[in-house]
Amino acid sequence: MVGRQWGEQSQGDVDYTYWNLGLTPRLNKPLLSLDLRYWDTSELNCPNSGVFSCGPRIVGSFKTSF
After folding, report:
1. What secondary structure does DSSP assign to 19-49, as a single string?
2. Among 23, 25, 40, 44, which is most buried by a count of CB atoms within 10 Å?
3. 12 close to 47: Cβ distance less than 8 angstroms
4. In Å, what is the CA distance from 11 to each residue of 3, 6, 7, 45, 56?
5. pLDDT in tens, 40-55
6. How far is residue 1's CA from residue 14's CA, in Å, rounded to a whole number?
């Protein structure tokens, strides 16, 4: 997935492109799956404030179905 974010000039005017690449194997037929993803952005000078973090990350999550 690739996306583009345009910031408001009054809020620091942070414009950047973001992307992620992931893999989701099923672990126990359809009941359980693991999602492992690499996220990154084009922002080089990361403000690192609040929830926004523009550095590279690896994120994992589990999903179950009933």
Report:
1. EEEEE--BSBTBTEEEEEEEEEES-SS----
2. 40
3. yes
4. 20, 11, 7, 15, 23
5. 888 776 665 555 567 7
6. 20
Give this prediction's pTM. 0.61
Quote the CA–CA distance of 6 and 41 in Å, as a whole number. 13
pLDDT (mean) for 18-39? 83
Burial (0-12, 13-18, 19+ Cβ within 10 Å), 39: middle
Residue type, 43: E
What's at 38, amino acid-wise? Y
User: How high is the mean pLDDT of the chain?
Assistant: 78
What CA–CA distance (Å, rounded) separates 51 from 48? 8
